[in-house]
């Protein structure tokens, strides 16, 4: 009986779940009220490398990449480098068998310099410069996504017909999804892609097919960001298969690839919904097979481009408290040594975050405070109405989870504060990947006065 009870008892929550936030799966309480990630204390790592510090859990990145490969064994999974890229990140995703989606010559060059195989790279961009296209050709990137009429002729002119360039055409299916209007790209009225409605997509496809140097491999769409429902992706499959059928009927070609972009949402707060990858894999694969069978079309190879869902949950930002200000109206402002220059997302999109004290045990009650940055702007608020111990004081360390995507990659030089250092943690060891940016770095770029 006892045995049965034990066997069928609900599994104890994993330590990371018990922490009540979107922490990496490796997160555990550590000695001295520290929080271990990848077997290393966040406070200990912050003492070693200074703050603000971004800590990346290598195991979390790898296991998320592996989960995509497992869920979609027949698809191609490209990590969207815009979420965050450095040479180590490029190594991890390459080793896990993913390709890479880049959207600038900077991302492209960094990845190839790190040894990422160019054939597994896809280049995006709504305004690729002639130099970018030339670099992409010179490095022999696997695919280029066409996102404008001018690009078709420009790229064709760079290509010798004996070594055609594989391209996809980015289309707008007219599907609204995503967390904020600023990142909604599946609908008209924004700068990306060729709308299907009205015929722009069909025209672009016809023009690409006319270029002997361009090999049209398929269609691409990207709906938006931080999407947690599956329905928009299923609608995108429907819309893109309809277009594949039109292309077959009009031009007599069946395109072998269908790229559904990224936009897979993660948890920022403990109760948030998140993108269900296994369910996505089953339903999208199934829907694609059904729609293709209905139209007597060969099933194209699926491509997905997750960025946030791979990098986001693997990152933790660690800040030091610089001041605590209690105002007469009852608000408390806890100011830290980073802010909108390392994480512009709250100011840009009103994005919510959770935050936790690390490295000191507090028995004080909970207080509602605003965690603010150190920049000269009232909107520089990192976490509004955070619940933290009432005795927070300068010198304390605060850790913000789900910090791995679109923070460092959107970091700025505001107030010459300098971008934070980045450390990787794995198997109980921490190593510095990127050093802190100093004012000397800013000065070094000056060449006149
Ligand atoms: N593919 C394309 C063509 C994209 O434009 C993007 C993101 C992705 C893939 C990856 O999307 P993900 O899976 O990471 O959502 N700065 C905003 C996000 C902008 C995303 C731009 N494109 C934010 O901080 O929420």
TrEMBL record:
<feature type="binding site">
    <location>
        <position position="406"/>
    </location>
    <ligand>
        <name>substrate</name>
    </ligand>
</feature>
<dbReference type="InterPro" id="IPR029066">
    <property type="entry name" value="PLP-binding_barrel"/>
</dbReference>
<dbReference type="InterPro" id="IPR002986">
    <property type="entry name" value="DAP_deCOOHase_LysA"/>
</dbReference>
<dbReference type="InterPro" id="IPR022644">
    <property type="entry name" value="De-COase2_N"/>
</dbReference>
<feature type="binding site">
    <location>
        <position position="345"/>
    </location>
    <ligand>
        <name>substrate</name>
    </ligand>
</feature>
<dbReference type="InterPro" id="IPR000183">
    <property type="entry name" value="Orn/DAP/Arg_de-COase"/>
</dbReference>
<keyword id="KW-0210">Decarboxylase</keyword>
<protein>
    <recommendedName>
        <fullName>Diaminopimelate decarboxylase</fullName>
        <ecNumber>4.1.1.20</ecNumber>
    </recommendedName>
</protein>
<dbReference type="Pfam" id="PF02784">
    <property type="entry name" value="Orn_Arg_deC_N"/>
</dbReference>
<dbReference type="GO" id="GO:0008836">
    <property type="term" value="F:diaminopimelate decarboxylase activity"/>
</dbReference>
<dbReference type="InterPro" id="IPR022653">
    <property type="entry name" value="De-COase2_pyr-phos_BS"/>
</dbReference>
<comment type="function">
    <text>Specifically catalyzes the decarboxylation of meso-diaminopimelate (meso-DAP) to L-lysine.</text>
</comment>
<comment type="subunit">
    <text>Homodimer.</text>
</comment>
<feature type="binding site">
    <location>
        <position position="308"/>
    </location>
    <ligand>
        <name>substrate</name>
    </ligand>
</feature>
<keyword id="KW-0663">Pyridoxal phosphate</keyword>
<feature type="binding site">
    <location>
        <position position="406"/>
    </location>
    <ligand>
        <name>pyridoxal 5'-phosphate</name>
    </ligand>
</feature>
<feature type="binding site">
    <location>
        <position position="377"/>
    </location>
    <ligand>
        <name>substrate</name>
    </ligand>
</feature>
<feature type="domain" description="Orn/DAP/Arg decarboxylase 2 N-terminal">
    <location>
        <begin position="59"/>
        <end position="311"/>
    </location>
</feature>
<keyword id="KW-0457">Lysine biosynthesis</keyword>
<keyword id="KW-0028">Amino-acid biosynthesis</keyword>
<keyword id="KW-0456">Lyase</keyword>
<feature type="binding site">
    <location>
        <begin position="305"/>
        <end position="308"/>
    </location>
    <ligand>
        <name>pyridoxal 5'-phosphate</name>
    </ligand>
</feature>
<feature type="modified residue" description="N6-(pyridoxal phosphate)lysine">
    <location>
        <position position="82"/>
    </location>
</feature>
<comment type="pathway">
    <text>Amino-acid biosynthesis; L-lysine biosynthesis via DAP pathway; L-lysine from DL-2,6-diaminopimelate: step 1/1.</text>
</comment>
<comment type="similarity">
    <text>Belongs to the Orn/Lys/Arg decarboxylase class-II family. LysA subfamily.</text>
</comment>
<feature type="binding site">
    <location>
        <position position="349"/>
    </location>
    <ligand>
        <name>substrate</name>
    </ligand>
</feature>
<feature type="binding site">
    <location>
        <position position="263"/>
    </location>
    <ligand>
        <name>pyridoxal 5'-phosphate</name>
    </ligand>
</feature>
<dbReference type="InterPro" id="IPR009006">
    <property type="entry name" value="Ala_racemase/Decarboxylase_C"/>
</dbReference>
